[in-house]
Amino acid sequence: MDAAKLEAQLAAANAVLAQVSPLLGGVALLVRMVAHLFARQGVSIAPFADEIARLEANTADAQAAINAFRTKYPG
Amino acid sequence: MKSRRALAPVVVLALVWFQACASAPPAPKQALVAHYAADVMAIVTQQQTLVTQAAGAGLPVATARELTDANQKIVDAATQLASALRTYDNAATLEVRHLSVQSVEAAIALLNQALSQAFHVEIPSGITAQILALYANIAKLVTDLQTEIAKGWS
Q1: What is the Cβ-side half-sphere exposure of residue A4, based on CA atoms within 13 angstroms?
Q2: Of B17, B26, B98, B128, which is least packed with CB atoms within 10 Å of its CB?
Q3: CB nearest to A55's CB, from B41, B68, B74
């Protein structure tokens, strides 16, 4: 590829970049807004509800085991 | 036509970015806290079952009661922790999330206190090797959890 051709391609690429840059900023803002709206609606962006559910289930099991003891040894 | 071509990579980038936001990995610290606490509660369940089986068959009923009361405190603290973690997970604003971190930390402190009380119940030797082994497992989990918490909240 000769230098003139390369220069022309670079100029074309720069022109596209110049068009795209402000758009990228706008899209970034839009994505942030949507993510924020999702978060406000209670949709977790960092979900770990499964682990909490496991904690709740295991805690309920422990309570059941305690209740079994208290039924067997009341008072 | 030219502007449509220019828009294509922008749209693709936006989709990739949005996908990355939507499927971000779990908040490691909070997920670990829930994970360790769930493991602790599984062991507490096993321990309580053993206590019930051993009560009156070598393990004095009074000691079994003391252990059961200690376990009840652990259950109460774990319930509070799960509730605080749920509030954290569902927080609609950063302010609520920040406040719920304080609740999570308070519940962890309560859980630690309840666990250390349980460790202080004197268990007669001989019959209780399994119970002591379970306590050792709990102690290891608590140490791991404290190491994680010491690194700070993300």
Answers
A1: 0
A2: B98
A3: B41
